[in-house]
Specification:
The protein has three helices and eight strands, in the order αββαβββββαβ. The radius of gyration is 24 Å and the shape is elongated. The strands form two sheets. Strands 3-2-1-4-5 form a five-stranded mixed sheet, with helices on one face. The N terminus is likely disordered. The chain is α+β, with helices and mostly antiparallel strands.
């Protein structure tokens, strides 16, 4: 049985307007904000009166938020995401009326995966610069095409190039 890391490390918080809203729904959840608040107070960092609350005691309706202002969501100990509220509006007649389903995700930004320049099928695993064998700089290749184009059967380098492993951000969607 494989567990997702979110199942193993359930602690999380939102940081809005000087208040850490900690997820305390499960007994194994820790207050991730405690260390930050203690660090701030012990070193007089200029953050005054930082507070900590239980996330489950609040809804977005209880918060005073600024449109376009960057806030923070932290989970799994140190995985941080910027949260920006881009739109708030009154409910329309054709909106979902079940309040428990809000906040409602209406669009997720998808990153396209970069495909291999040669086969155009597989996700790029290598990027080259100053590549005498490639028509673009930088140029992206899957493992098979990179090896086939840049090395002979004995593993000797063909042509001049700089090569680096490439991790495409689109694979994380």
């Amino acid at each position: 049985h494989l567990s997702l890391s979110q199942d193993l490390y359930k602690s999380a918080f939102f940081y809005f307007e000087g208040i850490f809203y900690n997820d305390k729904r499960y007994p194994e959840c820790r207050d991730l904000s405690r260390t930050i608040i203690e660090w701030s107070e012990s070193h007089d960092r200029g953050y005054v009166n930082l507070q900590s609350e239980d996330m489950e005691d609040y809804t977005f309706n209880d918060l005073s938020l600024k449109i376009g202002f960057p806030y923070l969501f932290c989970h799994q100990g140190d995985c941080e995401h910027i949260v920006i509220i881009t739109d708030i509006r009154l409910i329309h007649y054709d909106d979902c009326l079940d309040r428990n389903l809000y906040p409602l995700l209406i669009k997720k930004h998808w990153l396209c995966t970069r495909k291999c320049f040669v086969c155009k099928m597989y996700t790029a695993r290598w990027v080259t610069n100053n590549d005498s064998l490639a028509p673009e700089d930088p140029c992206f290749f899957c493992d098979v095409c990179f090896q086939m184009l840049h090395y002979d059967l004995e593993g000797n380098k063909l042509g001049e190039f700089l090569a680096y492993p490439y991790v495409d951000p689109g694979i994380f969607n």
